[in-house]
Design brief:
Layout lengths: L2 E12 L2 E13 L3 E6 L6 H8 L7 E6 L2 E2 L5 H11 E4 L11 H11 L4 H14 L15 H12 L6 E5 L7 H18 L2 E5 L11 E6 L2 E5 L7
Parallel strand pairs: 3-8, 3-9, 6-7, 7-8
Antiparallel strand pairs: 1-2, 1-4, 4-5, 9-10
Helix pairs in contact: 3-4, 3-5, 4-5, 5-6
């Protein structure tokens, strides 16, 4: 259960010239670890996350999930891979307003061909894991911002992904709620064994990371000074 980017380069057309978004990037994220990705706006963080999610195919290099090289996969194969292997948590939860917290999770299973009833135990387990067992029947407007983000995280884990990609999950939260969300992501990374990548601008969250990857001008540097306590 790991994520590996090797020699990834991504170049976009930019008028009459070309813009290098990622320049020979290599990133290894082992299972049960969290890598924080930091860097200034426009440095390539979003491009890195999109490539890791197989939403964008790099010009050169490889993206491997569970030692499976995604190079050459068809669009359908990549869609299936994302559904089965990759969980994504975006800045905004984008919950469906008409569905309860429990139903938000069940609908993920329905898209994967399972019935809501079959998905019910897993959905309840995950809501309990994120501390929302008592809020299962509430709709998004009845939940706080932090609670909505917790539902978002639980939804991303519904299909038991290998890789968890998290994009600025605390941007709309105050410091206390943001810290609680990051602590939850760390705990679930350990518990579920995911290879987790967290993109963040908030340096106060870096102490929670096993590794820090700094992106500048499409290139990546690694910091290993912060290690998980044994």
């Amino acid at each position: 259960m790991s994520l590996n980017l090797t020699g990834v380069t991504l170049i976009y057309p930019d008028g009459d010239s070309r813009l290098t978004a990622l320049d020979d990037v290599t990133l290894d994220v082992p299972p049960s670890t969290l890598t924080a990705v930091v860097g200034p706006s426009g440095s390539g963080k979003s491009s890195l996350l999109a490539v890791a999610a197989t939403l964008i195919t790099p010009g050169t290099g490889t993206v491997s999930i569970d030692a499976t090289d995604t190079t050459g996969m068809s669009r359908r194969e990549l869609t299936d891979l994302r559904r089965r292997k990759i969980g994504m948590v975006f800045q905004q939860p984008n919950l469906l307003p008409s569905l309860t917290a429990l139903e938000q999770l069940q609908v993920v299973a329905v898209l994967d061909g399972r019935s809501p009833a079959a998905a019910l135990p897993r959905a309840r387990e995950l809501l309990d894991a994120v501390g929302l067992a008592g809020e299962a029947g509430r709709r998004p407007h009845q939940l706080s911002g932090g609670q909505r983000q917790r539902v978002n995280i639980a939804r991303a884990l519904m299909n038991d992904p290998t890789v968890l990609l998290v994009d600025e999950p605390t941007s709309a939260l105050d410091h206390e709620r943001g810290r609680a969300v990051v602590d939850l992501i760390v705990r679930l990374t350990r518990l579920r064994g995911t290879a987790t990548v967290l993109v963040t601008h908030d340096t106060t969250h870096l102490a929670a990371a096993d590794r820090i990857a700094e992106v500048r001008d499409g290139r990546i540097g690694h910091h290993t000074g912060i290690e998980r306590a044994s």
